[in-house]
Specification:
The complex is a heterodimer. By secondary structure, chain A is an alpha+beta fold. Chain A is 27% helix and 26% strand. In chain B, the strands form three sheets. In chain B, strands 4-5-8-6-7 form a five-stranded antiparallel sheet. A four-stranded antiparallel sheet of chain B has the order 9-10-11-12. In chain B, strands 1-3-2 form a three-stranded parallel sheet, covered by helices on one side. In chain B, helix 10 packs antiparallel against helix 11 and helix 11 crosses helix 12. Chain B starts with a strand and ends with a helix. Classes of the chains: A alpha+beta, B alpha+beta. The interface between A and B is medium-sized, with 35 and 34 residues.
Chain lengths: 709, 324
């Protein structure tokens, strides 16, 4: 069987280097056409009418005025008389018209009568929830006995609210029919699986649905399915006999197209005199909208903590169902756990890094964390700068340091890649994956070019189309492992075929030949070789085409990473305003294909992390049941001036590289909430129990009030 | 978008004539009104675009009087070295609008007369946000960004970046209407509506704000805004102060809060407290306490009382050039 592996460190020309992303120029100049930029001939604009009530029954709907409006082509009722609506923003009807303005006007002309029903949208108040449900209880060891004899115990009630994905490009697509063949330009994370889902809903064979996503403007876990607006868009296009563009309005995007579940918990944790964790008890609850939500993994990272009890309550609300948000469940579990452990370290009079290090055997990767703590502490000058919590109230501005650790899997998903070598030396890969902004196109090109010994611009990568070989959805940090493994296998096989043709010309065995520096030559004697172009010409008149798969033979990928982050903050105790000065991230992800893009993933994670630590939250109105900040004005995102200095250290070299490629999208976004909260506690001497750390919550904590969630 | 008429007058008199008609609305920089129309929060019969009206923009500084035309953009004012030198606190107020696009398009008149940002108003529940049963949605709902000095049922906050400072320095608004020109203190531009449908400014139909004038000699002024983000964001609270008097002693002090009430909130008692006093940490703290006396925070905005206190202290410190 053929051998598949990554080149040794000293033989890598491109892998591990820092090439800029291939589509940077077309994106930054605006030449890149996103799905929402597609404007085929005869395009109609579609808009969706949503329900303004959080809970209601439709008692009547009259679309006749809308249908009679000039420029309106199709009016489509999504939920008609008798339907029970469970959240504000749920879709009721849609219109396709000649312009967006006409479509919006037509929506206003649709008359819907509602019977308004009672709603519940404030899940922080578990006791007030009409429909809270026990969702699991588990005990290991004897927590009651362990608490009774523990040296120090802390008890905290903590929480973080639901928040939005806030994709810059809203959810949506352009649908065009040609007879009974459908083409969808979709803003999606799942090119290869979306077509089948459209087909099932629309009653056409999956072979007749084409999905295209050359570029897309962010998904973060919220763009895996056609969604109702996708199917409605295709139906409108079919009825109108014309292409239809349907992208959500910003308020819809925030309200219905993706949120992260909330998490609240009352937690007790204890340690013994040596600073060893001995007991844990958590009573957690949270909501992911109408479906409620399952338990986050508590205690996080320190999951081998003995004597623990966990209970969870799922709290359904009249809000749209949540979606996977970058590292599902982990940021919540990380904040709840690391905040409590940080408070316990303070109670014990220990430096939190020292405390966490004393308990690393309770984690799955003690050695990694120990190494990362040392690097992160060095970067932060922790030893010189860390002080016990500042409980003075002198001066306005107080500085603090906080630390957190996290973990993630990140194994590559199933992937297929066709690699073709043409007789003129052209090399291309076709893969039914998608570049959701992470740089997938660039890393596939790097693997291809590395394998054939070519430069990046000499290879071509085609992706974002379901006519290419199936590759998995981009979620859970699974893409980089999947696509690099399938590409490498295909490329190594294709090269071996080329070498079989070249070997006789060089009077060598194929196994003696290598490709590098634009040439094929006998290993150890580069004078016995030829240019890549000449080598490719040896294959004859037809190209060589090979498919590579993942999973497959050879140790190209693995999973399981650790990361440590340190936040350095300033808190103005007279205003409650928190400013992040520095974020330090130390992260492993196995073999790194592209250092620049890997660091970029971490920067992005830190920026999103500062966002949810300080600013981002859904604000549902208890009165109307609607979100009060379904916009970019009061749904506050971190600006670049708000994120401080971001400093990233990637773990590489022996001990890391040989693990193969591991995904990186999720891990860096997990710790910032915990690290920043801990830094604020260090700065002001008191825990602010809720994220985001807004001035009202900080001032409440300083005043000794628990404050509203 | 609902259909509306559009007029582009060339003179102030033409603009005034057009604005007299029911349903006419002045369009200045267009950074907000067009969104309100698209969102169907506001409806107009006709927009009267002021961009082509002569004599509405420009900055003059003569004899200690600063005159700013209503259609002057925030960036033009920010770039006017003499105006900024005469009233340095203007730069703080303008830089708070942390978007080059908004500063380039937004005008001084537009800033002074912009509509409230109240999220109930912006969702179509009206400026007073009264539910069908007459209850206040604001008090029963989420009021974290609302007024700590509500007036009647009006609980939104005045969002103007320039108004607190202009009120503090005693600026006058120059208003042209069918009956000619009138002048009034800038604070008299504002009112708290008593019934839904009433506007939050005092301009009569046909009246147009053409500019503001202020004597900027002999006083020291400052603005302090409490901001959660450095990126584009509304202040959570703002304070503007203006001090007259020579040497250490303050003759007269005007203290005005922004984002605290439906109108720029003049903290009269706080200002009076400092009259004839030397500014010390103690007198400044006393003035800050006095500035929030009578505050009536709601369920979710108690923290803004503390922010107001801090903003007043820091603005006074800046004006007096002292560390507080």
């Amino acid at each position: 069987m053929a051998d598949y592996s990554w080149p040794e460190a000293e033989r890598r020309a491109l892998i591990g280097s820092r090439p800029a992303r291939l589509d940077g120029p077309v994106k930054s100049t605006g030449f890149a056409k996103y799905p929402s930029d597609q404007n085929p001939q005869g395009l109609l604009a579609a808009k969706i009418l949503t329900c303004p009530h959080a809970h209601a029954r439709i008692v009547g709907i009259d679309t006749s005025a809308a249908e009679a409006m000039p420029g309106v082509r199709v009016v489509h009722v999504i939920q008609g008389e008798g339907a029970e609506i469970q959240w504000a923003g749920d879709e009721v009807a849609a219109v396709a018209a000649v312009t967006e303005e006409v479509a919006r006007d037509a929506l206003r002309a649709i008359r819907v009568d509602y019977e308004v029903l009672p709603h519940f949208v404030t899940e922080a108040d578990r006791d007030g929830a009409p429909d809270a449900r026990p969702a699991g209880e588990r005990t290991e060891g004897d927590p009651d006995a362990a608490f009774a004899t523990a040296h120090r115990t802390v008890e905290r009630t903590l929480g973080m609210p639901q928040m939005a994905h806030m994709c810059l490009e809203p959810h949506g697509q352009v649908c065009s029919w040609d007879g009974d063949e459908l083409e969808v330009h979709a803003s999606t994370q799942a090119v290869s699986t979306l077509g089948g889902q459209f087909a099932t809903e629309l009653g056409v064979p999956a072979s007749q649905v084409r999905i295209r996503t050359e570029y897309m403007g962010g998904g973060f876990g919220s763009k895996f399915s056609p969604d109702r607006w996708g199917i409605v868009g295709a139906e409108l296009a079919r009825k109108a006999g014309a292409p239809v563009k349907l992208f959500l309005e910003r308020d819809q995007e925030v309200t219905v197209a993706g949120s992260r579940p909330s998490a609240f918990a009352r937690i007790r944790a204890s340690a013994d005199e040596q600073g060893r964790l001995v007991a844990w008890d958590s009573d957690s609850w949270g909501s992911g909208g109408l479906p409620g939500t399952g338990q986050t993994p508590l205690p996080y990272v320190f999951s081998r903590l003995p004597n623990r009890r966990t209970r969870h309550t799922s709290v359904p609300t009249n809000l749209a169902g949540s979606r996977a948000w970058r590292a599902p469940n982990h940021p919540q579990a990380c904040f709840l756990t690391m905040a409590v452990l940080d408070d316990l370290a303070d109670e014990l009079g220990l430096d939190p890094i020292d405390f966490l290090e004393r308990n690393l055997d309770l984690t799955g990767r003690a050695d990694t964390y120990r190494e990362q703590f040392a690097i992160a502490a060095e970067m932060a000058s922790w030893k010189e700068r860390w002080q016990p919590r500042d409980r003075t109230r002198e001066g306005a501005v107080h500085r603090g340091l906080g630390v957190s650790v996290h973990t993630w899997g990140g194994r590559g998903h199933s992937s297929n890649c066709d690699v073709t070598v043409h007789p003129d030396g052209a090399v291309e890969a076709r893969i039914g994956s998608q570049d959701i902004g992470t740089g997938t196109r660039t890393i596939v090109a790097q693997v291809l070019a590395e394998t054939f010994g070519l430069e990046l611009h000499q290879v071509r990568v085609s992706l974002g189309d379901n006519v290419y070989p199936q590759s998995g959805p981009s979620g859970g940090s699974s893409t980089v492992g999947g696509v690099t493994a399938s590409t490498r296998r295909a490329a190594q096989d294709a090269l071996r075929e080329v070498l079989v043709h070249v070997a006789p010309r060089l009077e060598a065995e194929p196994e003696q030949l290598v490709a590098g520096g634009g040439r094929v030559f006998v290993e150890g004697d580069s004078s016995r070789g030829m240019s890549w172009r000449e080598a490719a010409a040896q294959i004859g008149g037809a190209p060589i085409s090979v498919q590579g798969r993942n999973p497959g033979p050879g140790r190209l990928i693995s999973s399981g990473v650790g990361g440590v982050q340190i936040a350095d903050v300033e808190v103005d105790i007279e205003t409650g305003v928190v400013q992040v000065e520095r974020m330090i991230a130390v992260q492993d992800c196995g073999l790194i294909i592209n250092r620049r893009l890997a660091e970029s993933q971490v920067y992005g994670g830190l920026i999103m992390g500062v966002g949810y630590a300080l600013y981002e939250e859904w604000i549902p109105d208890p009165v109307s049941g609607r979100l009060l900040n379904a916009d970019m004005e009061f749904y506050k995102l971190a600006g670049l001036v708000d994120v401080g200095s971001l400093e990233v250290h990637m773990m590489t070299g022996p001990g890391y590289d040989e693990r193969g490629v591991i995904g990186l999208g999720e891990p860096p976004v997990i710790s910032p909430g915990a690290a920043i909260s801990n830094a604020v506690a260090n700065a002001i001497g008191v825990r602010v129990p809720y994220l985001p750390l807004t001035p009202d919550r900080v001032l409440d904590a300083l005043a000794g009030r628990g404050g509203p969630a | 978008m609902r259909p509306f008429g559009y007029a582009a007058p060339a003179t102030v008199d033409q603009a005034v004539g057009l604005l007299e008609a029911e349903g006419s609305e002045a369009l200045a920089g267009g950074t907000d009104l067009l969104s309100l129309l698209k969102d169907d929060v506001e409806r107009v019969e006709r927009l009267v675009a002021l961009g082509g009206v002569t004599g509405l923009s420009g900055i003059e500084l003569a004899g200690g009087m600063l005159r700013i035309g209503a259609m002057t953009t925030l960036q033009e004012l920010r770039d006017h070295d003499d105006a900024i030198a005469a009233l340095p606190a203007l730069s703080v107020a303008i830089d708070g609008v942390a978007s080059p696009q908004l500063r380039a398009m937004g005008t001084v008149g537009g800033d002074l007369l912009q509509r409230p940002r109240c999220w109930y108003y912006r969702r179509g529940f009206g400026l007073l946000a009264l539910a069908a049963d007459g209850r206040s949605m604001v008090t029963a709902g989420d009021n974290r960004y609302h007024a700590i000095f509500p007036e009647g049922e009006a609980r939104f906050v005045n969002p103007s970046s320039l108004a607190p400072l202009l009120v503090a320095v005693g600026a006058e608004a120059v208003v042209r209407g069918p009956a000619g020109e009138r002048r009034q203190p800038v604070e008299a531009l504002y009112r708290a509506p008593e019934v839904d449908g009433e506007r939050e400014n005092t301009l009569a139909p046909g009246e147009l704000l053409v500019g503001v004038e202020a004597n900027v000699e002999g006083s020291r002024s400052a603005v302090y805004e409490v901001r959660q983000r450095r990126a584009l964001d509304w202040p959570l609270m703002a304070a503007a102060v203006s001090l007259t008097g020579s040497g250490a002693r303050t003759e007269r002090a005007r203290i005005v809060l922004g984002h605290a009430a439906p109108v720029p909130h003049v903290a009269t008692a706080a200002g009076d407290l400092l009259a004839g006093q030397e500014l010390t940490p103690e007198t400044v703290a006393a003035a800050a306490d006095a500035a929030v006396e009578g505050a009536r925070p709601m369920s979710g905005n108690r923290y803004k009382v503390q922010l107001a206190r801090t903003a007043v202290r820091r603005a006074l410190g800046r004006a007096a050039g002292m560390e507080i």
